[in-house]
Amino acid sequence: MTPSVLVLSVLGLAIVGYFLGRQRALQAAARDGVKLHSLPGYYGQSVALFTAVPAFFLLGAWLFLQPIAIESSISGKIPDSAIADAGARSLIMVDVRRIAKGVSLLIEQGDVTENELSDMSAEVTNVRAQLATVGVALGSDVSPVVFEAAKEYRSIELSGDFVRNIAVFLVALGFGFWAWARVQPRMRARNISETFVLALLMGSSMVAILTTVGIVGSLLFESVAFFKLYPAEDFFLSTTWNPQFRGGSDLGFLPLLWGTFYVSFVALALAVPIGLMIALYLAEYAGTTLRGFAKPAIEMLAGIPTIVYGLFALITVGPFLRDWIAQPLGLGTSSSSVMTAGLVMGVMLIPFISSLSDDIINAVPQAMRDGSYGLGATKSETIRRVILPAALPGIVGAFLLAASRAIGETMIVVMGAGAAAQLGLNPFEAMTTVTVKIVSQLTGDTEFASPETLVAFALGLTLFVFTLCLNILALYIVRKYREQYE
Amino acid sequence: MTDLTAETSASASHKQNRSLFEVGERTRKRHASERRFRRLGLAAVIFGILALVGLMASILSNGLSSFQQTYVAIDVFLDPAKLDKNGNRDPADIQKITTFTINPLIQAALKKTMEDRGIEADGVNAKKAFEMISKEAPADVRRYVLADPGEIGKTVSFELLANGRIDGYYKGRVTMDSAALDRNVSPEQLLLADKLKQAGILQSRFNWSFLTAPDASDTRPEAAGLGVAILGSAYMMLIVLVLALPIGVAASIYLEEFAPRNRWTDLIEVNISNLAAVPSIVFGILGLAIFINFVGLPQSAPVVGGLVLTLMTLPTIIIATRAALKAVPPSIRDAALGIGASKMQAIFHHVLPLAAPGILTGTIIGLAQALGETAPLLLIGMVAFVREYPGAPPEGFFDPASALPVQVYNWTQRGDPAFVERASGAIIVLLVFLLLMNAIAVLLRRRFERRW
């Protein structure tokens, strides 16, 4: 029985429970001649909740924990001698899982029976060829140890699934029956089911915390594993980035950091003045028609997925910059460059800056403008000497938020900035950023024990810390220095 | 700053020739700077709009052609001597035929068609002429034969895909000059293509298979389609909707209506606003570390992508829902409480239905964001080459699939420039979906918006 069928049957039980609970309450009330404390539906609801929710919790936890438990017990049983020639325990475990899955498929198709399987051993049977017929490809021939482990994996998994189904059903039936048996007219069914619902609401709000814990936990855990394999001072201070998948790589973080800041700088140098001018013009000068048209048009830029900007950088901006600026000036021949990624990212950030600044500029009270005009100032003088200083903290906040976006942006730099890790000043050369390297270290066939892969988690952690600091700083500035007007 | 302060500091001579009707040097300067500032602002607005127009124009001009495709219409004789040697029409036997068996049939058909129409192939031999048909064509014919073995022995008219280079010739991507340098196509072939086109053998028409077919390998850009990617994106959106909407609404109800103001709820709120600002790629790392490495869910599966996107979308939905709940006036709650409803009843029976349109629009906008998100999906392996359609949900959630934005990225990484056209075409499809979703959100808001 697959988990989805299990979920559906528990839901079915809950619905049955609802009607049984409701009926029991009504019958008891009619028999004893007393009034129900709550509406009859609440009696049913409490039974249904007690049937479904604990069972779902158990199922979720089981689905989460069973693979981990099986993994550790099986991997402990594989002798070290088997690992020596395959490289790493994790690789063997991948094979074990694949074989177990393939064997299940074979049995499903009727090619092998359970009894045949227990007699099968890797030496006499060509397991690899047989598995290939069901679409499970294995890199090398199966060693007997691994095959035995796979068989055991499968049998534990099967019995685990069986026990899980039984346990979930028992929990659903048990809690359901208990809730049903408690139903009597005097029971405060509404209060019970409302408390239950409140607990569920509270639980949902915890998902945000759990996500943060998950992010920080996974980043920290894998980064620690990385720094055990690779010295931290080399990571933070070395100026060469040269990963070799055979080992012996230089994983200096500085070139990536430099690329990230350079691209972000170009992006902000474009986005901040233009975004700010757009906000000022639309707020102070533009008539209602222009504003009604231009504001949504520019905000549309914010709703476009970053992959679209990436493609724009790749097929239009990059070749344009190369053919019209970089090559005539002799600055470079690459269509992916800091300038390409920076300019396109700047366009992406314009609406971000303009709409945040627009709100802040609109919050400056009219009396301050009128005062300035009354003294004879022109509009631009009022803007420069009165409105901008008043709105400055908010604008700095918007700037910082845009900066954190620019640092964390991935698709534009992956497609526009290139992959060459170097510390250069020429903006028409390809450079690379932290996010580009996270993608390139983690895509493709990777094995999760080498520093070349784990470095991505350390990079992710640095990225997370950087953007977090910028966000906190931005919020702090906005909150602390924001002028409160009546 | 003003005339008044300027006057006090100005010299006496300046004062003498002053008239209200005469614009002084200083005033002129100030007015000029005013005009400059104003023009600068207008230029910025125009730049912003031009950027949008340029972006759209670039994508449309590159991508619209992917919806057109060149086909070769020929009658292929399905030779029983080759397709069914035993002559028993046994599907198991026919299953064994390969594209190598079919290639000569198509080649012969093309040759015969050209001879019938009297088309001279100057400098193009039969093999080269056959190369003008896509490598996907024999697979199409094989599929046709397998679906209906009774057709063997008949002459069937097929519309087969033309090779990507020939297709590109009619889209302006391949020219005579570039063909002269290209190993895969020669100028003679292009001349022949023109003749075939005049004879009506080569036709261009709307390319449905771009929307329905699965991805194709590097050498067959003309056959690559978005079918698997659209299905994968749809599965992920379904998971996001089913998980993020209830969890997000429940969390917002708790925070907005029930939560006491204390450190704990402060912590939750800080977390939510922080998650909204975390770079999307970090969510990909989370998905890889927790869902794939720790829990052992399969790579490239919509279920992992859906979970990651759910976590990313939650803050958006929570923020929108809280705003919608806040917008419901307290008098409604008070009235419900006043006639004896419990707090839970007041919220679920009265406040939530009134806030529903706002919640819905927020959800659609969150889904639209999730639909376009790429970076985290790269990390959980959704860039893999997937040719098989995933199965029906819920089991299909665990099958490998692609997603629209990742398919775009995947195609841009390929060598053949024909894939750039495909990628832009895929972006158009993505943007159409986004436009539809946003239009629905705007419509809902218009339809249900109320002011209290």
UniProtKB/TrEMBL annotation, chain A:
Record keywords: Cell inner membrane, Cell membrane, Membrane, Phosphate transport, Transmembrane, Transmembrane helix, Transport
InterPro entries linked to this entry: MetI-like, MetI-like_sf, Phosphate_PstC, PstC_N
Keyword Transmembrane: yes
Domain of life: Bacteria
Name used for this protein in its record: Phosphate transport system permease protein
Domain ABC transmembrane type-1: 257-474
Family note: Belongs to the binding-protein-dependent transport system permease family. CysTW subfamily.
Organism of origin: Hoeflea algicola
Transmembrane segments: 6-21, 42-65, 162-183, 195-221, 261-282, 302-321, 341-365, 386-407, 454-478
Record membrane topology: Multi-pass membrane protein
Protein localization: Cell inner membrane; Cell membrane
Stated role: Part of the binding-protein-dependent transport system for phosphate; probably responsible for the translocation of the substrate across the membrane.
Gene this protein is translated from: pstC
TrEMBL record, chain B:
Chain ranges of the ABC transmembrane type-1 domain: 230-441
Membrane topology summary: Multi-pass membrane protein
Region of interest called Disordered, as start-end residue ranges on this chain: 1-27
Top-level taxonomic group: Bacteria
Location of this chain's protein in the cell: Cell inner membrane; Cell membrane
Annotated PANTHER family: PHOSPHATE TRANSPORT SYSTEM PERMEASE PROTEIN PSTA-RELATED (PTHR43470)
Name of the protein in its database record: Phosphate transport system permease protein PstA
